[in-house]
Design the sequence.
């Protein structure tokens, strides 16, 4: 379907053709047309049901494509979207990011454009078919920056490596330029410092000029270029302030030479301009190094992707590139190698280190039938793995995408900061102008007025404001990911730090989600004998209860005998012959069918009242014992609830089990409230009721039936063992089945937002205190330059402190292991 976006005859009116999904009849088209016509800013709307298209004429001053798509959604239909990501080179502060966003947003079809200066990346949502990656690159170029279009998926690893190589080369180049600038500026600094301590030493004017000029116009050329691009785009940024301040000091020095001649010696300000540029370069270099630290989590995850895999094809082993591995291939992983793809173990057994993926510090035993994750490290065994998910469908690729998505987003407070940054530079220029006028009017001297104005221009820096939020988010989400907590987006991160009510689904979250043997009671022989008989007749069965008995037999290293005359009765149990004796294994009805008398039936009734399934085992017509099976509580569940209580959160458990069973489990784990006999739709209603009471609600689940409740909660949290639909609906995914990570997710969010508040506080205080001091003449231009350089470095360094964050229980485990 073709999509159009053209200028109308009236220069103020634009026309767009939007594809529409979800219309089923002409009445749908009429309803949508009515809704569009009523919307603010839309002059004409025509909806064609047959073409599934809406042609809309609108005033761009009153509305935009994003608002129009919102009208379509509110009417009950969908406008298909597509997303783009591209790198943006050459940005120096948040004002630059704002300028790129404006340029991108002017393109027809753009729903939302977000530019993250810390990641140097633009993320764009657009109406499907209305914009191309080339058009986006052109818009970035028009704003005065260099677009870097992402490589194709199959070359993504190479592209990531090339990008990091470019980053490293750029950092090395910056370092060389900085060292040269320091070398040229140092004599000027020495000249100035000696004057302060009373030693009258002056560099010849020609030497000052020779040292300062290359710093100003060669090393400082980047500032002039960036300032020119900003002004050409009718904007202003940090570079404009630096250029205005240093050029004023440099030009005034030439003015003194021209008017005073040799008497100008000792009165020049070449050292101020050179030192300011050097200090700004130093700050930018330190900031770049620190920013690399905030993206360390993403780089670590990318490094987990193996480049090749060993695949068994046509009866032989072949080494192929990772992009050539297809789902269903048998991949061979030798001891110590990194597992290249997600898959299922088909032969072999080993311990696998999944620490960098799930945060689990201990290796996990893997046997045939177990699932393994690409990027994990194989232990001492040889594994044959059948590939199940490859490329962008792999767990690792999805983790990287989730982390990048969270890091690229903007917290609500960042949008306010962006608006402040947009007017920050013009306001500072105005303050500098008033400072100059005030000093000149009341002091009558040009020189101190100029120096005070230069100090104001140099000390004011929007960089610290722009970096305060994204660096904290990048570092915080990265640290959470290393601990096995994946945060889907910034909105989930922002809401998570306010959570004060946590709702658990019982099965699979607080309990293991699979039956396990909890008690064996022998009436004849011993427990091992009872389990041996029961497990033997269950060999080959896929029934959950059968698997529970076979698993316990394996744990107790019981050798199982051969089985003959096997028969299965659905809903009752099984019979078979082992070692010449008939075995009956099943429920009470199965015993009665075979005319076998139960022993102590009241004991079995008591067990069943505790939500345990009782399996009767009889041999040669007589009961020899019972086996109680239940969905056991996770060993971490009690600690998880205690940790949430410590964070001040109310805890609830909703279960489809009977009220009595739910109450027993709830009391065992210590939740504030437990409710049983709750259907999936009622879980969502319970969450809505809590929200109506003023709670900010988090829901933890792992199954398809949890998806409505996860969506209804302020923050949905999916357990890593859960289904894809639960993980898609959730805002936070826990990469392993440890409910203690729920408190960890809340703590990570709170720690991140504490850092954001600290960063913004210092960034604002720095400008609020620094600008008046500079205007008052307390700070020299060189001191102002040093303060400006340190401001953004201090903000990024404060964010980097989050790299050491880990959930409290993981820190405790580390402390205990040391003792």
Sequence:
């Amino acid at each position: 379907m073709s999509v159009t976006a053209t200028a109308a005859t009236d220069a103020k009116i634009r026309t767009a053709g939007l594809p529409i999904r979800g219309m089923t009849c002409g009445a749908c088209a009429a309803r949508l047309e009515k809704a569009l016509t009523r919307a603010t800013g839309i002059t004409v709307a025509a909806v064609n049901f047959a073409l599934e298209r809406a042609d809309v004429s609108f005033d761009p001053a009153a509305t935009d494509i994003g608002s129009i798509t919102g009208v379509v959604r509110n009417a009950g239909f969908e406008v298909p979207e597509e997303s783009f990501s591209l790198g943006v080179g050459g940005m120096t502060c948040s004002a630059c990011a704002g300028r790129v966003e404006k340029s991108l947003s002017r393109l027809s079809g753009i729903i939302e454009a977000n530019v993250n200066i810390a990641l140097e990346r633009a993320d764009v949502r657009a109406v499907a078919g209305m914009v191309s990656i080339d058009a986006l690159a052109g818009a970035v170029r028009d704003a005065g920056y260099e677009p870097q279009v992402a490589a194709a998926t199959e070359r993504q690893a190479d592209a990531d490596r090339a990008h990091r190589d470019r980053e490293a080369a750029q950092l090395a180049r910056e370092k060389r330029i900085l060292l040269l600038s320091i070398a040229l500026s140092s004599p000027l600094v020495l000249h100035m410092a000696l004057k302060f301590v009373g030693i009258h030493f002056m560099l010849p004017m020609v030497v000052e000029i020779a040292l300062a000029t290359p710093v100003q116009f060669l090393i400082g050329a980047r500032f002039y270029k960036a300032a020119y691009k900003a002004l050409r785009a009718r904007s202003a940024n940090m570079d404009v302030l630096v250029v205005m301040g240093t050029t004023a000091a440099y030009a005034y020095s030439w003015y003194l030479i021209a008017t005073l001649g040799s008497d100008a010696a000792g009165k020049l300000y070449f050292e101020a301009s050179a030192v300011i540029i050097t200090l700004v370069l130093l700050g930018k270099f330190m900031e770049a190094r620190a920013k690399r630290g905030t993206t360390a989590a993403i780089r670590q995850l990318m490094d987990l992707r193996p480049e090749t895999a060993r695949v068994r094809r046509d009866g032989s082993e072949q080494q192929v590139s990772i992009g050539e591995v297809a789902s269903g291939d048998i991949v061979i992983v030798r001891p110590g190698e990194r597992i290249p793809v997600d898959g299922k173990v088909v032969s072999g057994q080993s311990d696998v280190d999944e620490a960098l993926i799930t945060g689990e510090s201990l290796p996990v035993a893997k046997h045939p039938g177990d699932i393994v994750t690409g990027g994990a490290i194989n232990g001492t065994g040889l594994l044959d793995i059948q590939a199940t998910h490859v490329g962008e469908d792999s767990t690792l690729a999805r983790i990287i995408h989730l982390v990048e998505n969270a890091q690229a987003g903007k917290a609500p407070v960042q949008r306010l900061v962006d608006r402040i940054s947009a007017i920050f530079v013009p306001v500072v220029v105005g303050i500098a102008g008033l400072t100059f006028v005030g000093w000149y009017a009341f002091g009558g001297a040009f020189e101190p007025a100029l120096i005070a104005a230069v100090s104001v221009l140099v000390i004011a820096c929007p960089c610290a404001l722009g970096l305060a939020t994204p660096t904290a988010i990048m570092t915080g989400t990265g640290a959470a990911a290393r601990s096995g907590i994946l945060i889907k987006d910034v909105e989930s991160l922002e809401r998570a730090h306010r959570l004060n009510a946590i709702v658990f689904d019982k099965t699979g979250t607080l309990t293991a989600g699979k039956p396990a043997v909890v008690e064996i009671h022998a009436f004849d022989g011993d427990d091992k004998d009872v389990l041996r008989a029961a497990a033997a007749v269950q060999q080959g069965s896929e029934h959950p209860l059968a698997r529970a008995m076979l698993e316990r037999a394996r744990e107790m290293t019981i050798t199982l005998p051969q089985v003959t005359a096997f028969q299965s009765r659905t809903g009752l149990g099984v019979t078979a012959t082992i070692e010449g004796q008939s075995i009956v294994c099943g429920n009470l009805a199965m015993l009665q069918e075979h005319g076998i008398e139960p022993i102590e039936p009241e004991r079995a009734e008591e067990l069943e009242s505790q939500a345990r399934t009782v399996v009767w085992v009889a041999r040669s017509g007589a009961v020899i014992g019972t086996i109680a099976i239940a969905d056991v509580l996770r060993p971490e569940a009690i600690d998880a609830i205690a940790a949430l209580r410590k964070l001040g959160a109310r805890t609830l458990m909703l279960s489809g089990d009977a009220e009595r069973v739910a109450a027993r489990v709830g009391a065992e784990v210590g939740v504030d409230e437990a409710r049983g006999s709750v259907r999936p739709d009622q879980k969502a209603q319970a969450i809505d009721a809590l929200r109506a009471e003023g709670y900010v609600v988090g829901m933890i689940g792992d199954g398809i039936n949890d998806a409505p409740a996860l969506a209804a909660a302020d923050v949905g949290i999916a357990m890593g063992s859960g289904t894809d639909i639960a993980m898609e609906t959730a805002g936070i995914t826990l990469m392993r089945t440890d409910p203690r990570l729920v408190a960890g997710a809340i703590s990570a969010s709170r720690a991140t937002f504490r850092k954001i508040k600290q960063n913004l506080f210092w960034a604002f205080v720095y400008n609020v205190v620094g600008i008046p001091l500079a205007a008052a003449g307390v700070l020299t231009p060189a001191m102002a330059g040093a303060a400006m350089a340190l401001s953004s470095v201090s903000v990024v360094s404060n964010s980097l402190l989050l790299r050491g964050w880990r959930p409290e229980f993981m820190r405790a485990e580390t402390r205990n292991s040391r003792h």
User: Anything to note?
Assistant: The chain is about 50% helix and 20% strand. Confidence is low (pLDDT under 50) at residues 1-11, 151-155. Residues 247 and 273 are 7 Å apart (CA to CA). The longest strand covers residues 511-522.
